[in-house]
Write a structure and sequence with these properties.
Elements lengths: L4 E6 L8 E6 L7 E11 L1 H7 L16 E8 L11 E4 L2 E3 L5 H4 L11 E2 L11 E5 L4 E2 L6 H4 L5 H11 L7 E5 L3 H13 L2 E6 L5 H7 L3 E4 L3 H5 L5 E6 L7 H6 L1 E9 L11 H5 L4 E4 L5 H14 L5 E5 L3 H10 L5 E5 L5
Parallel strand pairs: 10-11, 10-13, 11-12, 13-14, 14-15, 16-17
Antiparallel strand pairs: 1-2, 3-4, 3-8, 3-17, 4-5, 5-9, 6-7
Amino acid sequence: MSNNTIQAYAAMQAGEKLVPYQFDAGELQPHQVEVKVEYCGLCHSDISVLNNEWRSTVYPVVAGHEIIGRIVALGSEAKGLQIGQRVGIGWTAESCQACDECIGGQQVLCTGGSVATIVGHAGGFADKVRAGWQWAIPLPENLDAESAGPLLCGGITVFDPLLKHKIQATHHVGVIGIGGLGHIAIKLLKAWGCEITAFSSNPDKTEELKAMGADHVVNSRDTEAVKAQKGKFDLLLSTVNVTLNWSAFIATLAPNGTLHFLGLTLEPVPVSVGSLIGGAKSVTGSPTGSPAALRQLLKFAARKKIAPQIELFPMSQLNEAIERLHSGQARYRIVLKADFAE
């Protein structure tokens, strides 16, 4: 077997189970690193790509974009990394490093050739994966490798808005939807020192969410309960992909407050301009985050001992793990442990 051969699990068509798959990755490019995969998180975005829900999938597709592993090869232009070093790779594998956004430190918004780790590129459901060296994020020594993978996507997705909106410990933040992203948001906000309200459609989670750090829990589908929060929130993070009473949620914002979308809500969001103008409120959204923000997140998580709550599956049971995620029973993030034969 060539050194460039990668063993993986791939979907050959939309809706099909993943099967073992080998391919030749070609020569390592000068700006790339090659990482031997140890762990890889399973995200709803992986399923969307596997099933071509976004109409961007190239088959066969190797998904997986919450990757933890060790560097086994370095391109000649890679900087600041070492063979054997443990790193993480998230949603983005490549950015052009030349457009205004990249030069300005916003590589996640690259307009000159950004490559997602699992769209037209082979991801982490494999024994090895490649990425531009800037996107191989060093893992702090005291960060648990087994549970760290979801920080590279779910974690940075909810962390980056805290930086963008200059959230401080004096702020009250609401989190809408407590699944893979939402539970990490609660853990981060607790360590940040904020007052936290969790909006969940499942009242049975109340005590569990309070144990995670939520100060208050509100039923997200109870319009009267939502309306009772009027004027409270400096920031609302929406992680859901369903339609809710968005007018009621906007009314819960404090002056200068923001409703920030992270989940891909399926229908247009009706917004009354008057509801924004009166309190200088805003509605925003964002993808993941830059390499700098990813580094900040991992250092913060290591210092505050923040770890996503995971269920561990061997990668050879990937199809069973996907079914578990589909069932809605995962608490709260599934991580796959690589078990390829050497």
